[in-house]
Amino acid sequence: MATSPSSTSLQYQFRSISLPSRLHPHNTRIDVELNKLKTGQSSLVSSTVPTSGETIRTGLVGLAGLYSCVEELVHSPITQAALVQHRNGVLVEEALEGSIGFLDSCNAARDLLLVMKQNVQDLQSVLRRKGGDSSIDGNITAYKSSQKKVKKESAKCIRALKKMEKQNDLCSIFDVNYHLSDVIRVLREVRIVTISVLRFFFLFLSMVDSRPRPSGWSLIKMIAVTQLKGHKSFNEIGSVDAALQSLYGCIRNNDPNSDVQITRRRLGALGDSMEGLETGLDCLYRQLVRNRVSLLNILAQ
Question: From CA 206, how far away is CA 212, in angstroms rounded?
C-alpha cells in the first residue's frame, strides 16, 4: 500500500539526525537537544498510554533550550555573515516569517490555557461551596460547553501548524558553502520539531489521538485515549471529564453516593497541569522572542 503524504511527513518529522560537528562549537549541543526532542515526540506517537501534561511541559522547556543553543549559533560572526550574504538575507527573512507563526501559536495556546484555568477555578469554587448539590448541574454544563470551544480552537491551531508544515522549508541548500548548508539544515530541523511540539500541545488540550492507524496517520477524537486491561485511561483533561460525567449523572438521578472529592482531586491535578504548561509556554515564548530579535539584528547590520 502506498504511503500517504501525511505519513511520510511524520516519518521525516521524527527522524533522528546527526549533524556534522564542523558547524560551530555549540553544534554538539544542538545535535543532542534536537535528538532528545525527536525521540520524545516519537515516543508520544508510539505510546499506549495517554500523554500527560508534564510530558508536554517537558517538551516545551526542551524546545526553549534548543532555541537557546540556536541563538548562540546565530550570534557567531561567521554565521551572521553567511546569512546576510546569501541572497541578500532571504534565509533570515524566511526564518523570521516562520517565527511569527510560532509566536502566534504560543499566544493562542496561552489564551486557551487561561480559559481552561478559569474553568477549573470556577468549578473548584462551586464544589467547595455547594458540594454535590443539584444546583451545580448548570456549572457542569457551562464547563463542558467552554471545553468544547477550547477543543474547537485547538483544532484550528493544529490546522494552522499543518499549513506551516506544508509550506516550503527555507531556501535550497544547493550551491552554498559547507557552513551555510549546515546552518540551513539546523534551522530546518528546528522548524520541524517546533511544529511537532506545538502540535502535541494542542492535541493534549483537544484530547485527540495522534497514533497511526492501518490506513495511515490520522487524528481521532476520543475521550478514552486508550484501553488498558479493560480500563479506560485518560489524560488530566479526560479524567476530569469522566469525573464530571459521573457526578452529573448522580445529581440528575438524586444519587446520594456521588463522590465530590474525586472530582475535586482531579480538578486539582488538572489545575497543576495547567500551571506547568503555562510555565513551559512562557519559557518557550521568551526564547522565541529573543531568537526573533537576534534575526532582526542581523538584517539591520
Answer: 17
In a domain, 149, yes or no: yes
For residue 146, pLDDT beyond 70:
yes
pLDDT of residue 170: 57
For 148, other C-beta atoms within 10 Å of its C-beta total 11
Domain that residue 40 falls in: 23-300
pLDDT of residue 213: 43
Asked if the structure places residue 18 within a domain, the reply is: no
Q: How many domains, in total, are found in the chain?
A: 1
**In terms of Cα–Cα distance, which of 151, 117, 123 is closest to 247?**
123
Residue 8 lies in a domain: no
Nearest Cα residue to 219 out of 130, 154, 272, 297? 154
CA distance 182 to 176: 10
5 found inside a domain: no
Residue with cell 500500500: 1
Q: What is the pTM of this model?
A: 0.82
- d(Cα 203, Cα 97) in Å, to the nearest integer? 24
Q: Which residues of 81-103 are buried (b: 16+ CB within 10 A; e: fewer)?
A: ebbeebeebebbebbbebbebbb
Nearest-CA neighbor of 173 among 162, 181, 161, 183?
A: 181
Are residues 204 and 25 in contact, defined by beta-carbon separation less than 8 angstroms? Answer: no
> Can you list the pairs that 69-72 forms with residues at least 24 positions away whose Cβ atoms lie under 8 Å?
69/26, 69/29, 69/30, 69/33, 70/30, 70/186, 70/187, 70/190, 70/291, 71/287, 71/290, 71/291, 71/294, 72/24, 72/26
